[in-house]
């Protein structure tokens, strides 16, 4: 996070046995914010929201996998049903319609199907804790995967597109390795080497660090 904006905070809350990085992003001055990718463990997410004293403006999804979206419906319900769920791109609708089925496969019985209040798409800008974020469509790991970019903060919410030292898996029936590499090359790397990102699993990184050391994108 840019040092010039100490009021904006990104708190990582690892959720589900898959240790997915749910993120509470909020403004310490206004106490308004968003939760990104509440995959499960909703009580822990609620505790983080309460501890930070944050009023949630929206629940944001990067893509339709269970560890990212499985707790979204429950979180919305526990907050009184008024906080909208937004994203991902509508191409992930079949995944969001099958979260309960995924839950049975992965032993995550609490997962619930979810239909966002609003689909998002590339080219739109969304305000998170008062800060505008651009939306990029980066398919390959999931057909409707979205990445959220603040050019001013030099900060990206990456989901499962690019990790520190790795990339999102594409060994699903709908997976597309070439599309993922293409999205990283044409949309993510050009954001700039100084840009920091949080990703869905493990520690975050910078675009520059991955450009030189990530074995999956060498030669890009
Ligand atoms: Zn995923």
In short:
The chain is 24% helix and 26% strand.
Structural write-up:
The structure is a single chain. The model has no long low-confidence stretch (mean pLDDT 95). This protein has a single domain (8-213), classed as Ribonuclease Z/Hydroxyacylglutathione hydrolase-like (Metallo-beta-lactamase, Chain A), CATH 3.60.15.10. By secondary structure, the chain is of the alpha+beta class. It has helices at 42-52, 66-69, 72-78, 93-96, 99-106, 177-188, 207-213, and strands at residues 8-15, 20-27, 32-36, 55-60, 85-86, 125-128, 131-137, 146-150, 155-157, 162-163, 166-167, 196-198, 205-206. Zinc ion binds at residues 63, 65, 68, 141-142, 160.
Q: Find the structural class using helix and strand composition.
A: alpha+beta
Distance from N terminus to C terminus (CA atoms, Å) equals: 26 Å
Strand content range = 25-35%
Strand order of the largest sheet: 6-7-8-9-12-13
Radius of gyration: 16 Å
User: SSE order, as H and E?
Assistant: EEEHEHHEHHEEEEEEHEEH
What ligands are attached or bound here?
zinc ion
């Amino acid at each position: 996070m840019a040092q010039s904006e100490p009021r904006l905070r990104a708190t990582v809350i690892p959720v589900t046995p898959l240790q997915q990085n749910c993120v509470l992003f909020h403004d310490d001055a206004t106490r308004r914010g968003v939760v990104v990718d509440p995959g499960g463990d909703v009580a822990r997410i609620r505790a983080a929201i309460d501890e930070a004293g944050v009023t949630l403006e929206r629940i944001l999804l990067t893509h339709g996998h269970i560890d990212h979206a499985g707790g979204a419906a429950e979180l919305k319900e526990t907050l009184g049903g008024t906080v909208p769920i937004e994203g991902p791109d509508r191409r992930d609708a079949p995944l969001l319609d099958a979260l309960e089925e995924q839950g049975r496969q992965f032993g995550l019985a609490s997962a619930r199907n979810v239909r966002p209040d609003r689909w998002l798409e590339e080219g739109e800008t969304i305000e998170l804790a008062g800060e505008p974020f651009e939306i990029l469509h980066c398919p390959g790991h999931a057909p409707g995967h979205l990445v959220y970019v603040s050019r001013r903060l030099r900060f990206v919410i990456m989901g499962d597109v690019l990790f520190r030292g790795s990339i999102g898996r594409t060994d699903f029936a709908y997976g597309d390795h070439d599309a993922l590499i293409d999205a990283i090359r044409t949309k993510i790397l050009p954001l700039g080497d100084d840009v920091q990102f949080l990703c869905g699993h493990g520690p975050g990184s910078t675009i520059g660090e991955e450009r030189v050391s990530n074995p999956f994108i060498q030669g890009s």
